[in-house]
Amino acid sequence: MSTLAAAIPTAAQSTTITTAGLAVGIGILAVEHVRWWRGGGGAKGVPGAAGGAAGGAARDPKVMIPFWFGIAVGTLMVACPAGLLGSLAGLFRWGGNGLGGMVMATMTGHQASAIAQASAPGLGEGGAIVVTAMVIGLWLLRKAFPKATKGKWWKGVFTGTLITIGTGTFALIGNIVVPGANSLGDWALHGIVHTSIL
Fold it and tell me: What is the dihedral angle through the alpha carbons of 94, 98, 100, 102, rounded to the nearest 10 degrees?
């Protein structure tokens, strides 16, 4: 475990998600799509954003790319067995569980209950190559992205860590993203290391 990952409190490293944490993730997912559908998703600085009145031309799918890419990254973070990304995913889940639990208890009087343990399929060696390359690329390009794009991406990352569960509809996300990353990494590793063009 890295020094930074070790600095995150153990209670915050849990991969358990509660009903309240899932509610927070679903809420953010719904709000982002409603804003996009109504035309409010056209934030300044987001590529393809048009803005405009409700139901107008602002429903450009490109506006949602940073958010959905963030969800994919959040899903891959949950699939990391350890390390800084896995610990950060646990921290995000801890925060979502805490925030959602406070709102749920205050508004409804009900206490949140755990609904899933470590959920996404495991990240293999190939997937680890993809994630490492992606992290390096994002770090090097971080200043090239507009602020609005970064905001949507971080919302997506947070949402991805909360809705990546092992059953039901949301399991489809983990079952596509993680095996996809594993397969892409395995293909690249085989093509680069074991195949010669000569």
Answer: 180
